[in-house]
């Protein structure tokens, strides 16, 4: 039985995040063409594209699969990153760059949770580009995983539709699941877009923007891992806090954590993870985590309203910044809104103190 490739194209085009993912990855790399491709042993099909260099491929267009590097990635599902074809020992004589006229190339496989290979997320450009940085690699990896996760969810939804086809309630179940999937993707994408936009706006250079954006996206990714384990319903605050501070635990005794086990909604979990990331990053640069004797107390209560407190001590003297950056706006405005509350960020002589009040929607 022949495979229905049109359904694969429709699936990718049904993912609201894909166009913005292609825009974001091209902005971060400076590359002019990005694509999500379906790749099998016999066919290479463009499912969604972004073309600013006149490459000429549109959704549903095909390339001869044997002439693509994606064909090699399907056989050995590992990312391929080429900053400058002419100077790359492996690919300088490879026929594909010459055939399609590119000098820089990055492609990540789309691997579904069951290990099956769907295709690739890739970008090309006729000019050399700086691509082999942790920031670029980390962002592409996260985007590939996000698309693969949604493909898997959509395929499972399709299977469920077939199972429920003869039942009277299948149409209602389908609508509920579709709305939930779209809602999750939109929430995640909105956060990623805000992080990238604000990082670009406030950074001193493109490299600085990419570094800041990737660190923040990785913080989101760690929270997303927790949510995936619970089917995106709730996440335990203990796990969110532990994952958020893990990169900063350079030795024992740096942090004291005190609070009950409570569950956060998906949006609250990702928001709190970002807030803790910003607080910890600033503490590592300027505050209690920037010297050997600094300490951070993290505590929360949920007896009545939810109250979260981050208190630094033992670090160098801190002063309030002259201008409010993205991190301050995030911690004082954006994240508290997810809890229906307020927050304050205080700069005391002995360290920063952050206090947030709000409501728990996820249930304790």
Throw out a few tags for this protein.
5-stranded mixed β-sheet; Heat Shock Protein 90; 10 helices; alpha+beta
Q: In a nutshell, what does this entry contain?
A:
This protein is α+β, with helices and mostly antiparallel strands and 364 residues long. 45% of the residues lie in helices and 21% in strands.
Explain this structure to me?
Helix content is about 45%, strand content about 20%. It has two domains: about 5-130, 2-Layer Sandwich (Beta-Lactamase); about 220-360, 2-Layer Sandwich (Heat Shock Protein 90), CATH 3.30.565. With about 375 residues, it is of the alpha+beta class. It has helices spanning about 5-15, 15-30, 70-75, 95-100, 135-165, 170-200, 205-230, 235-245, 265-285, 325-340; strands at about 35-40, 45-50, 60-65, 80, 105-110, 115-125, 235, 255-260, 265, 295-300, 305-315, 340-350, 350-360. Strand 10 (about 295-300) and strand 11 form a beta hairpin. The protein is globular.
Instruction: State the end-to-end distance.
Output: 50 Å
- The number of domains: 2
Uncertain parts: none
Helix content: 40-55%
Number of helices: 10
Largest sheet, described in full? 6 strands, antiparallel
* Rg value: 23 Å
Tell me the name of the CATH homologous superfamily of the largest domain: Histidine kinase-like ATPase, C-terminal domain
CATH topology (level 3) name of the largest domain? Heat Shock Protein 90
| Shape verdict | globular
Rounded mean pLDDT is 82
Strand content: 15-25%
Helix-strand pattern: HHEEEHEHEEHHHEHEEHEEHEE
By secondary-structure content and strand pairing, the structural class works out as alpha+beta
Provide the spatial order of strands within the biggest beta sheet: 3-2-1-6-5-4
Per DSSP E runs of 2 or more residues, the count of β-strands stands at 13
CATH architecture field of the largest domain: 2-Layer Sandwich
